[in-house]
């Protein structure tokens, strides 16, 4: 064990030196990635359909690729290709046996998606995990820190065999392919990780917590805050460092962290470093390289080829569906502070796949990004064009103004005899301010953030309704529909099936006038 710390710290140093040498990212590296992906699948059914062998002969390979291969969302890719592999057929869309499928439901209420995960993608994720050590080197951690445990709050690691493949959480797939040297550091360990019931898993972690020497936490902030509160209550302490004295880094992802920052800072008076990551079922896309940057650096050699569709009315309809004829741009042509829907082609055989996330570039030197929202996660019932980013910024400003803490919220839209309206649902545990004050400020800040919203508020968007509920109501709702756990989060915007489920749930608890 004595050698592990020095070796790990030395690896972090080497990674840091390498990253600094290639600090200015070269977008042409992406063309090499695309060429390898196309070469790998030229003899598949999809490769034959879109003449990958011809594409490989072209000097402007990336241009012909985007012209010949259509844009897919999950449903269209499933109908055209994915269902065949799920039925046992191989060499359909990727030139390698697909042994694993990650279950991913997102926030829209759709049934579980089955995302292909190839051995090639697993190996890429493992290499990126090692390169993340470079993020720690700037933090000047002592050598002993590199020997501390990492607690990863994930779904069950148990995989279900279906036909000739396995299905389950991505965490379960990656755990089964974790390097042996890392297994000794990873918590909660296989026995607890395999527990399928989320509440039982949390209780098992709470019970074992004092036995671990945790240095890093990794996962969704919404679920980690619940875990830490339970630990503090169980052991009657008011500082998490009384349980984990060496805890220094929280690697978070999946949701915007700012609404949770105040709560996490209340867990300890000691300084904690918060680093953002972008790991999805479809691949590892970006991570924050230390504290020098607020954005996450796009990973240009991660087995993923990126394209970007400007997220506007020309390319997407009112439901967030991409329109026929929408044109994607290459990495070399992106601009700062423009909202794009991300399009990926991966080492698991997803081709020009619309992942559903929207991003903005915060730096074009290092291609640093931030996640803005989802293509179907915005409000536009009457032309107000409110993005999830607008909503989060408005809520953050309200919290700063009123000195309150709002961790969970959601918004829906509708129309009745009086016109269009928005319904806000706010998680508020302490009731420091009235609903009237909060909704007034939310409306005020959204008008400042979004000119379309300000215009529609004058003419057609007549009502903004708001009600506060205990934060636990949001998590209890997810539990009621079988969505509690590390891979699930409450949607910022409620639509369709999920909106009805939420309204029915509130009606059961609070009555018809919820």
Q: Could you describe the 3D structure shown?
A:
With 514 residues, the chain is an alpha/beta fold. Among the domains are: 4-23 and 123-164 and 182-280, no CATH class; 388-510, GMP Synthetase, Chain A, domain 3, CATH 3.30.300. The protein has helices at 4-21, 29-40, 45-49, 52-57, 61-68, 74-86, 119-131, 133-137, 170-175, 180-183, 190-193, 198-208, 221-234, 258-266, 388-402, 435-449, 451-459, 471-480, 496-510, and strands spanning 100-104, 113-117, 149-152, 160-162, 165-168, 186-187, 214-219, 249-252, 273-280, 283-287, 296-298, 304-310, 340-346, 353-363, 368-374, 409-416, 419-427, 461-469. It has an 11-stranded mixed beta sheet with strand order 6-3-7-8-9-10-11-15-14-13-12, with helices on both faces. It has a 4-stranded mixed beta sheet with strand order 2-1-5-4. A 3-stranded mixed beta sheet has the order 16-17-18. α15 (388-402) crosses α16 (435-449). The longest helix has 18 residues, at 4-21. It is globular and about 65 Å long.
